[in-house]
Structures are given as structure tokens and as C-alpha cells.
Amino acid sequence: MRLVHFTRAACSPHSELLWASALVCLSLSACQTSGPLSKNEDMPQSSGDIGDLDDLAGNTSDTGDGDGDDVCASTETSAELVPIHLLFVVDKSGSMNCNAPPHDTECLLPEKKVASEPSKWESTRAALVGEDEPMTDQDETGLFRQLIDAQGLSAGLITFPVDSRCAILPRGELTTHIAPLNVSQVNDLDVALTLNPDGETPLAGAAIRGLDILREQLVAGELTGKSYLVLMTDGVETCQQAALQDLKAYIPVALDGFDIHTYVIGAPGSEGSRALLSEIAYLGGTAQGGECDHGAATATVGDCHLDLTESADFSGDLAQVFKNLARSTQASCDFEVPQDAFVDPSKVNVVFTPSDGAEETVLFDDRDCTTAANGWQYTSAAQEKIVLCGPACERLRTDAAGQVRVVFGCEDTLIR
Fold first, then answer.
1. What is the dihedral of CA 379, 380, 382, 384, to 10 degrees?
2. Which of 116, 126, 161, 255 has minimal CB crowding within 10 Å?
């Protein structure tokens, strides 16, 4: 998919001198777009029809001193979506065979207490790759199937342990390699998750292996863009306690040195790991709120991670967590705002043209970009970058031939 943005809208008496790269000259009235159109309030329409901008190419106006020289120069560039790579490191220890609460609150034996209800593993598999899972009461297919052919999105998998005890994969190996989420890749992930959970919980070793793989592939140039490790467990480290310190030292190095973020999902059974999982999420740059507790001395205290231990509907809540996580990691539908004296960041219109329809105005939406928004917003008060959030971003990623235009209006002062 090609994302097109109009990056510089300047008012100049001689645009050919100031902007040698200008492709088109537009009238001042067309360049002075209105403030953002909002989902949350009624805003005035643009002073010029955004859909007519291309039709105005080559025209000049008599605005200014009457000689037709005061025009708005606009350049057009193209940008590609930033590739996103998700590596899921998923606990398949024996306790994943248990039902989630309220059907089993203790998991004393690694088996289902209620045969008609899903195990934690069955819920996990359904949330990731399920297609028709009546046992889990899911109305939607698994995350990977929902994201088939999403533009710029790859995923891979590590399950742990790889035997009935504490073994993890050798360095450099994955359960399923990281690749674009096409039908073949999703089928491979499906097969990899068709297994019977067994063994202990080598949480630290498996997470370190995953971070190693992402780091090595980034250094080798095999991956470009943004990388995320998604660690999911229902227990505590039972194999190599000393490795936990290595993991906590490695995570910030991966974040600061290689921009690898680490998400953590705590399934029922991980209550005794809340402090650890919360600290991992905090160190990995994915803390759930700035005031979350990530340094508690008590093992059961911590809320920086995605904690599902008290979920009343583990299957449904896990599916939603995966969906929200995919949305937040894909929030890279962004555009740089030109930082010059001519562009007015309060005069912006964003227009999306799907491959199978007419162009649509994307509305301004200042709600939380990772959970609620469906539109565009500035990423900070500095107004240096625009990001498309939620379904608006998802539509771009799933429409290979779709296009988006971001039109920045001029400051009112003309250069003489």
C-alpha cells in the first residue's frame, strides 16, 4: 500500500526559487485548509474541497498584490508503512492443560476439571489461530487469521518448554519462523500450536532466546522496522531462577539498543509472578500506565503487565488482549509534519482513498490511540507527527492499493 502525504505547503511569491522540488502550485484558498474534522465535535469543513486539490494543479490566483505571484507551493512524497514483527513466546507447560477460573482456581493436577470447558491452552490457541472454536464461545476467528495479508506485518512463535521438563530451543531456532502473515504462515502457526502442553516453566530462558533472535535478525538486516516480543505465561519460573537476573538485565538493552519492546501477558496461575512480570513489562517499555507498580518486594504485587489472573472470561478477555496488542503495535501509520514557518499544524485534513471506493475524510480523534481512537491525532503536544489510530490504521494496512493524503494548510502571513 502506498501512503502519500503532502509534506510542505508554503506561501511564496516565487515558489520556483524557494522550493526547487515543488511539483505543483495550488491557490492560496485551497492550501488554507480548516482545522481538523473531529469525531467528537462538529468542525467546519475545509475552505477548499480536498478532493479538488489535484484538479487545481497549475492554477494560480490573484490573491496578494495582484500579480498572481502569491501562491501556495506543495510537494508530494511517498512513504511506506513501517514493518512490524511480532514474536510470540508462549508457555506450554503442563499447567496450561487446566481450566481457567472459575472452573479451576488451583490447578492441582495438569488436566481439565470440567471437560466441557476449554483449558487455558485451548483458549490461547483459539485466540491466536482458532477458526471455528465452539468450546471457547468466541464470535471471531483467531488473531492471526484476522490479520492474514495485513500489510507490513510479520509474526513468529516460540513455545516453551520443548520437552516434558525444562528444555528450551537452541539459540537461533524458533518454533515457527518470523514471516509475513499470509495463509501459509498462519497455517504453520496453527500446526505449531496443535500440541498437548507438558513440562515445567523455563520462562527466563525462553524469553532470552526470543530477544536474541530478534536482535540477531535486526543486526543481520533480516528484519527492518519495529520488533516486539510477546511473552505469555501462566506460572512462575520453575527451571532456572538465576536466569531471571540475566533476563532483567537483557530486556532494557534490547529496548534501548535495538528498539525491541517486550509485552507480557499473565494468564491465570501467574499470580505468584506478578511482581516479576510487571517488572519485565516496565523494563520492556510496555508498562500499562505511568503509575503502575513495578518494584514490589511481594511476588504477588504488580500491575504493569497485561494481567488476566482475575479474568471472569479468560477466553474472551485473552482474545481482546491480543487484538488490542496487535492494534497498538501497528500504530505506525504516521506522517511527519513539516517543521517550517509556513505550515499551520491546526489546518490539517486527512483523506483516505480505498482501492474499491471513493475518497473519505479521516476524522480527528483524540481518544487513546491504542484502545479507543478511530481516526488521526498528533502524537505529542509538539505537533511534529500525525498518527492514524485503530480501525483507521487497520484499514490502511489491509488495503494494499489504498492511498492516504495528508494536506497541511498555510500560515496566513504571505512572504513578500
1. -10
2. 116
CA separation for the pair 92, 172 (Å, rounded)? 20
* Other C-beta atoms lying within 10 Å of the C-beta of residue 8: 21
Please, are residues 175 and 157 in contact by the beta-carbon 8 Å criterion? yes
> For residues 162 and 197, is the Cβ–Cβ distance under 8 A?
no
Given a contact cutoff of 8 angstroms between Cβ atoms, the answer to whether 343 and 408 are in contact is yes
pTM: 0.70
Angstrom distance (rounded) from CA 323 to CA 207? 21
Grid cell 472452573 in the structure block, residue? 103
- Fold for 84-98+120-309+317-329, please state it: Rossmann fold (3.40.50)
Alpha carbon separation from 193 to 75, 89, 91, 157, 220 (Å, rounded)? 49, 12, 11, 9, 28
Strand order across the beta sheet in which 360-362 lies: 360-362, 343-353, 403-410
Pairing verdict, β 403-410 and 385-389: unpaired
Q: Domain locations in the chain?
A: 3-81+333-410, 84-98+120-309+317-329
In eight-state DSSP terms, residue 162 is S
Read off the pLDDT of residues 202-225 as tens digits, 9 standing for 90 and up: 999 999 999 999 999 999 999 988
The predicted-structure confidence for 40-82, as pLDDT tens digits, reads as follows 544 333 333 323 323 323 333 333 333 434 344 443 334 456 7
- For every residue of 98-150, DSSP letters joined together read SBPTTT-SS--SSS-SSTTS-BHHHHHHHHHH-SS-GGGT-SS--HHHHTTT-
